Amino acid sequence: MTDTDAGPAPSLADARERDAADPLRAYRDHFSVPEDERYMDGNSLGLAPDTALATLDRVVDEWKRLAIRGWEAADPDWFHYGEHLGDLLAPLVGARESEVVVANSTTVNIHTLIGTFLDTLPGTPAGPDPTADPPAVLVNDLDFPTDHYAVRAQFRQRGIDPDEGLVGVESRDGRTIDEADIEAALRERDDIGIVFMPSVLYRSGQLLDIDRISAAAHEHGALAGFDCAHSLGVVDHDLRNAGAGGVDDGTADGAALGTGADFAVWCSYKYLNAGPGATAGLYVHERHHGTTPALAGWWGNDKSTQFEMRHTYDQADTAGAWQIGTVPMLSSAPIEGATELIREAGIDAVREKSLALTDLLIDLVEDRLGDDFSVGTPREHTRRGGHVAIEHPEGYRLSEALRDRGVIVDFRPPNVVRVCPAPLYTRYEDVWRVVETIEAIVESDAHREYEPRDGGVT
After folding, report:
1. Catalytic residue among 96, 203, 418, 427
2. What range does the domain containing 186 cover?
């Protein structure tokens, strides 16, 4: 069951009543919501908010008016824009402003951060003891593929066999990862130097316990890193103090020496609603500032000496050091406006509504749909991200039938229809109507009119 009290199935009238009382209902008006559709794919691409379009238009106008002078004369200036956006995002991840920057893509950030921290470990060519046995990175077998691609590539660059270095925690049920199995893997192997896990599993929507994983990694002597692509903007985070009870004593090491996640990455086009290909972001705990980035580039140079054009890298003493190339202004500007809505609404309120929407969705699936359906997402609030995995043997054909009926979802093999009621623009009535549409499709066998999946984007 969900964390709500058991009772009769919610009615359409119940859903409309909740919409009328919703404190976040006005935010929907800021988004370009497609007419005659129920958009439930915000975990892949968020809808366009007017605030994001406004900041993009502002930067385009600055480009027209100021041209190259925009690097200094724009407001805010372009030269420090990655750091400026990092300041805006820092409260959403529970970090200090100096620990967050907007830069690169998610995969590039995984490359540079995994590479950076591998180079601090014994057993790598740049590590403190290159003759030691090589370190391992602990991941899991339900990860988004790009995470493994990047880690494997960084092992190859250091002459380490990826099949030996990449250690995967297996899922017990094919849906979720048990944190106890992460802890067991750390106990079983003394060569794990980095634990790199997602905050939310992309397929099932399970929210992992960042506090528990960080504490286990540090107790083992390993670093803790996270891919927060499926949580930033819909889950409240406290990365700096992870594993420390959320108490910051003001020191550079967080609440105590070794507490806090060491690093994290994320994208900006899902729950942050910053548009397709929006610039990604990263977090590096303050205790690691000064560590040489594995992928150094001129935009990570200290800003006060960057245009002295030295051939010797003078890295910034903040997370800004992990910037590589020039900030892409037109891909970054929407982040400023899009996150304005989340900051105004408050991440706690966003999270509360997200859980209420997914509670309703789970309740309706269990009450109204048949035995062929199951929910692959944990019911407990503390273990659930922002989307729900509805499982059905004909998941792909069902997803296609839904799209043709104006319900925009996506499919992930082998049998998952991902449904995401993004809290800033989704109504409770939308959730009710989605389940009503699924019910009508299966009762009429309409999904059987579609061919089984043969590849392509969903």
Report:
1. 418
2. 60-342
